[in-house]
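Contributing new records

If you add data, match the layout below exactly. Sequence lines come first and carry their own label; structure lines follow with theirs. Keep one chain per record. Anything else will be rejected by the validation script.
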Amino acid sequence: MTMRYGQRHELEVEAARRVERHYGVAAHRVVDIDLRAFGGSALTSDVPVPKDRPLTDMAGEIPVTYVPARNTIFLSFALAWAEVLGVGDIFIGVTAVDYSGYPDCRPEYIGAYERMANLATKAAVEGRQRVRIHTPLIRMTKAEIIRRGLELGVDYTMTLTCYDPAPDGLACGRCDACLLRRRGFAENGVPDPTRYRTI
C-alpha cells in the first residue's frame, strides 16, 4: 500500500510502482489522502525543507518535516485493508534509530497502535485473528538497513528517500533523508546509486 498524501512530489509513488512491477507484487493499492488540507509540515505545505543539518541535530527536537499523525493515518488504512483481506499481519518500515525524531516511529507508539487495533477490528474482538504490527527495521541504523537490503539483493536505484527531489527525480543530497542515506552507504563502503543534484 502506498499513500499519496499530498506530499511535495509524486516521485515516491512512482518509485513504489517500479518496485511493484519489478517484484510482481500481487496487489498494490495507491490510496489518496490529502494531508495538505491540514498542512503543519514541510512535506505537505510550502514550508522549506531543512537542509544541511548536522547529523547530531537530527535526534534533537522534532523537525518541520514531521507530518502530523501520518503513521497513524497510514496504519489505519493498512488496518482496514488487512481486515478486508482477512490477514492479521501489517508491516511498516519505521526506524527509531537513524530517524528525524518522529514520535510515530518509536516502539512505544507501534505497541500502543497494535493494542488499539486489537480492540478495533471485528476478527480480533471475536477472537478469530490477532493484529500484529511488524517493524523489521525499527532497531536498525540506516547502515544496517542498507546492508540487509544489499544482502537481500535490493536494487537501490529503484528507491527514493529524498524529501525535496527535483522534478526530474534527482535527489537534493542535503535534506535529512539524503544525508542519512548517504552516510548509510558510506558506512557500508559501497557506492550510493542515488542520482543527486547536489553533493
